[in-house]
Amino acid sequence: MTPGHHQAAEAPFDWEALRKYARDAMSRAYAPYSGFPVGAAARVDDGRTVSGCNVENAAYGVALCAECGLVSDLVAGGGGRLTHFTCCDRAGNILMPCGRCRQLLWEHGGPALLVDATDGVRPLAELLPDAFGPTDLTER
Ligand code: THU
């Protein structure tokens, strides 16, 4: 180490720990109609971890995606910005968020939100290009 440079390198983000939160939430999903339980988890910029699972309904179209629960957890817990996000299927494998949920994530994480994608970690801007967002309401 160069003398005078005593700062430890920042630890890499622990994606595996975040995936464990998502799997845990997935294990409590309520998905009796699709048989497709989903879990989602995210890190917040204040260090919190938030999570959610899908919650279906006898009126099929009313189903809540796992990301809906995650966003509710975020806001009810004091808000903040999402920095890292992961989602999983029943096998615990990475699942890409549906289109509507990418929009939900955009609102609370923006273009820089890091998403645990099946082909590697990618910023949300790549997964929701030319997104409509909060600034469109104020800048036009
Ligand atoms: N689902 C999610 O929870 N999140 C997604 O991003 C994709 C889809 C849920 C909705 C429904 O309960 C089940 O997966 C099958 O579509």
Automatic annotation (TrEMBL):
Domain CMP/dCMP-type deaminase: start-end pairs: 13-135
GO CC field: cytosol
Molecular function per GO: cytidine deaminase activity; zinc ion binding
Keyword check for Coiled coil: no
Enzyme's top EC category: hydrolase
Any Gene Ontology biological process: nucleobase-containing small molecule metabolic process
Enzyme Commission number(s) from the entry: 3.5.4.5
Homology family: Belongs to the cytidine and deoxycytidylate deaminase family.
Stated name of the protein: Cytidine deaminase
Organism of provenance: Streptomyces alkaliterrae
